[in-house]
UniProtKB/TrEMBL annotation:
Superkingdom field: Bacteria
Name of the featured protein: DUF2399 domain-containing protein
């Protein structure tokens, strides 16, 4: 008779539909069982396979590394050459030999190996231990975060004066940390490790998520206490150990991009010395700030730093948000179109960065003349993502929103989502149906259909 734990394992993980164990014909050897599998129908009973299973079911040593790699789940089948080592693995329950038969119940159709109960239990214990280690790591981060929020940082610094202009960003930073601390507490209560997926716009492995959480604490510590700091100081001050300055180097670009997206401000606004990169924002039309003024006539460029330091507005009525720089330059080339329609044109250049977000929000907040926003992107997966991101930015403001399609205009996000499905398989770049001033004016003035 098969032990109950082996029987449960076979029934839950190895048997196919309509298969069952022929308990009457099980052959017990000194160190193994030969277990026949049968398949029944209303009229027939046929032997379909034999499983050879070792009697041992508990791991008493580390699992062979080769087996851990080759058998990630019970459903995986592998061919192994017969050897003393393979037989030892089978005897110890690490693997199970499965022989499948032709309809004559004798001729071998296939022979392979599956994960045994010993290996399954070993893998489950490893997963459980790893999960517990993740929970402990999150718990340690939560303690550090709560200490920082309570001004009891475990790594205190002598406070230095920071610019008054930084205070709003620091306030948002503290709100972010509080949000993450709350999400972390909730996750720990549920014994889950997913914190960033529900709180931040990233989809990273756990180790990278955890590193980013520590990065946020490290940057926040310096932003609140130092007028300026450079990249290497972030890890060095936070970890206070040899090699600490390099802790975040492997994810530098991703971490900075995520930080700026969350705060909707460049990292320089926190005091981080310029990394030598400036993100341009291309546009055409009437726009003014406290230190700069732009008029109709050509393609202009500002930067994410300028947008952070200034507040922009426009007297335009129509705001075009386009994905492609080629579309931007083509529309700007028609030098009578923008002033004639009182339009402002902004190119997001294939990715909505923090500078674009901040500029668009400034214009929508400080420009009472704006009546509608026209969103024009490619009709592939990336274009769909950009269109949705822009819509979420615009949605809270009292303006009409339109999405440009090749031969139509959508006035509702749901309608745009449905319409875009017909273009996804084909793809569709803006340039393919660019048109000219006549078509652009039609899109501006096309009324919303009656509902």
């Amino acid at each position: 008779m098969l032990p109950a734990d082996i029987l449960d394992y076979l029934q839950n993980h190895l048997l196919l539909a309509n298969e069952e164990i022929d308990t009457l014909d099980i052959m017990e050897q000194t160190d193994r069982f030969d277990v026949p599998l049968i398949r029944r129908t209303a009229r027939t009973r046929r032997k379909v396979a034999t499983l050879t299973i070792g009697k041992k079911t508990e791991p008493v040593s580390l699992a062979p590394a080769e087996l851990v790699k080759q058998f990630p789940s019970p459903r995986v089948k592998r061919s192994l050459k017969g050897s003393d080592e393979v037989y030892a693995w089978l005897r110890d329950g690490w693997i199970i030999r499965e022989v499948r038969y032709h309809p004559d119940e004798k001729s071998v159709q296939a022979e392979h190996y599956r994960m045994g109960l010993t290996l399954y239990r070993y893998q489950e214990r490893v997963k459980k231990r790893q999960h517990q280690e993740k929970l402990e790591a999150l718990g340690h981060w939560l303690q550090a975060c709560q200490a920082a929020l309570n001004n009891g940082s475990p790594q205190p610094l002598q406070p230095s004066p920071v610019p008054e202009s930084r205070q709003p960003v620091i306030q948002r930073y503290q709100e972010l940390l509080q949000q993450l601390a709350t999400a972390c507490q909730s996750a720990l209560l549920r014994q889950e490790c997913s914190v960033l997926h529900s709180s931040l716009p990233v989809d990273w492995p756990f180790a990278k998520q955890l590193s980013f959480l520590h990065f946020l604490l490290a940057v926040g510590q310096l932003a609140a206490t130092r007028p300026q700091f450079d990249w290497k100081e972030i890890g060095a001050v936070y970890y206070k150990e040899i090699g600490g300055s390099k802790k975040f180097d492997g994810h530098k670009e991703d971490f900075l991009a995520a930080l700026e997206e969350i705060l909707e401000a460049p990292a320089e606004s926190l005091g981080l010395l310029s990394m030598g990169t400036v993100t341009p924002i291309f546009f055409s039309g009437n726009m003014q700030g406290q230190t700069a003024r732009y008029t109709f006539g050509t393609v202009h460029a500002t930067t994410h730093l300028a947008v952070c330091a200034d507040t922009f507005s426009t007297t335009a009525e129509h705001l075009w948000l386009v994905e492609s720089r080629a579309v931007l330059t083509r529309m700007a080339y028609e030098d009578h179109f923008l002033p004639a329609t009182n339009s402002l044109l902004i190119g997001v250049d294939g990715q909505v960065r923090s500078g674009h977000r901040r500029l668009i929000q400034q214009l929508l907040t400080h420009s009472p003349s704006l009546r509608q926003v026209l969103i024009w992107t490619d009709h592939d997966e990336a274009g769909m993502t950009i269109a949705e991101t822009l819509y979420r930015l615009v949605e809270p403001h009292p303006v009409q929103v339109k999405w440009i399609l090749p031969h139509a205009v959508c006035h509702m996000w749901k309608a745009y989502e449905e319409a875009i499905q017909t273009f996804k398989n084909k793809g569709g770049e803006q340039e393919a149906y660019l048109g000219g001033p006549t078509q652009w004016k039609i899109r501006i003035h096309q009324p919303q259909p009656n509902r």
